Amino acid sequence: ATKATAVSKAAAILQDSLGNSDDKSHLYWAKGTGFGTGSTTQSWNVEQALLRQRSEEEHVTVLLQVLSSYINPGGAVPPNFFAEEDEDESESESESGPEQPQLPMLFHDLLQQSSLLPALSSYLRNDSVLDMARHIPLYRAVLQLLRAMALSPQLVSLLLPQNRRQKSAQGDELSVICLLTKMKNCVNTYASRLKINKSKGNGKSRLPNKYQDELEQDEGLALLIPDIQETANLVQVATDRLVLEDEVEAPAGKDSALSGNLECPLQRSLEERYLEVMKQLQFDTYEMITECSEGGYQFVVSYHFESNMRAAGERSHPSRVKRLAQETVTLSTSLPLSYSSSVFVRCDTDRLDIMKVLITGPAETPYANGCFEFDVYFPPDYPNSPMHINLETTGHHTIRFNPNLYNDGKVCLSVLNTWHGRPEEKWNAQTSSFLQVLVSIQSLILVPEPYFNEPGYERSRGTPSGNQSSREYNSNICQATVKWAMLEQVRNPCPCFREVIHTHFWMKRQEILNQIEGWISDMETQCGDRRTGRAISLNAMALKVVFVLLLVSMLCSHQ
Length: 559
Description:
Elements: H1 6-13, H2 15-19, H3 46-71, H4 89-94, H5 105-113, H6 116-124, H7 129-133, H8 136-151, H9 169-174, H10 176-199, H11 212-216, H12 219-249, H13 254-260, H14 270-279, E1 283-286, E2 289-291, E3 297-299, H15 306-312, H16 320-334, E4 343-348, E5 354-360, E6 371-377, E7 388-391, H17 434-445, H18 464-491, H19 498-507, H20 509-526, H21 533-558
Helix pairs in contact: 1-3, 3-8, 6-10, 8-12, 10-12, 10-16, 14-19, 18-20, 18-21, 20-21
Pfam families: UQ_con (PF00179)
GO molecular function, one term: transferase activity
Organism: Cryptotermes secundus
């Protein structure tokens, strides 16, 4: 599900203005795809959008604060709120402090039927610490309201799943308490990653000491993180008490009767099992650098940007480590995952600026089920400049998989500043992110008809000549995908992704076999074309040979 963040809300506001672009060029692609026009005309103003977004956020923040003050005027937590249940009740009552105000009977129903809870949930679903850091007042107002509701006996039930007597995994995941717990875990992970990266050296490059104090001066997050932790604990205690009270008051045998009616889940499909297994493998660390006995360090895996990293030495922007810690937390929970195509990331155990990425090719494209490996390096001045990305799956620099993926590994994207585009499409330290880049590669480059990504070629889309050229182009990409993104990956997987690659190919083996047989069949039916038939015929022959080798390698790799 798409995560509703403040940035996405701003995007929605801009939808109408985007539709009124002054650019009169033809629409050759679906919205959000295509690279051929090369237009550099600005169609919307980023700064203006951010100002409008900030104004709306200030309005929402005030409304949340007013509502919190109405529910809990003082905002204070009773002194005995966290006291154990078995303490003497009379003693607890004497120290309970001021009682919560009695709210109108209708207030609970009004909140339940309003859009308040969905709105709060949308903010809590945001697992991007980077985005939270940009909207501190708004998130503190959300947390303030949640604390007020947790302290109100009349409203605390709204923080639980709607039908809490029915055991529903989906209901639990959508409840405020569950989302708040996930947010707490998210910021805890961020804090631990930031601490580890600032403290570990092991002969590897760290931020100079002169920047450490600047990182710790981030007052916004310094206030927000304990605020999230405190609110999560308070809401957990309040909801646990309510659940316990309900269980005590429930008629004997009612819960057991409900539990007895629970149906055993049906046998899970291959897709469900695949997603469950691959989800655990999406984000992890891997020791890519080790110390040398004679001093210094060395890479234990091939890494395209090793010379860049060594040349950078100790140079680094003061916000770099903080930004990387924020982004890795988002990556650990938000990487694209589907049966069709998924993204996997590995970062060095001690250095977050060194990463490797594996993307499985989307279905219904000439890249389907192939494993494409990328090396990623975050330069010293990141995020003021974008990360460097290089495609490693190039058939030893013999295959150009896409007009935007060169055989030397260059990745051509506006957001990476490697392709001229509109100003708002360029890298922006405030609005761009690594996750955005990964999604762009997955969805904008690995497309069904990559031939038309070549500048100027989009004008032939839909013509007989253009369609023939696209089929010829795809036939070459299909055989190259099987040879280099399947066979070579099975035979010589990157150590970082060995388990991912072998699991992917084994679990989807039947689909992959059917897919390649379909490619061969399609090519054989296209061989009669006078202009492109010979090239397609040669690609079909090459694909048949590689197909046999892939079958053998897949069987051997699983033994």
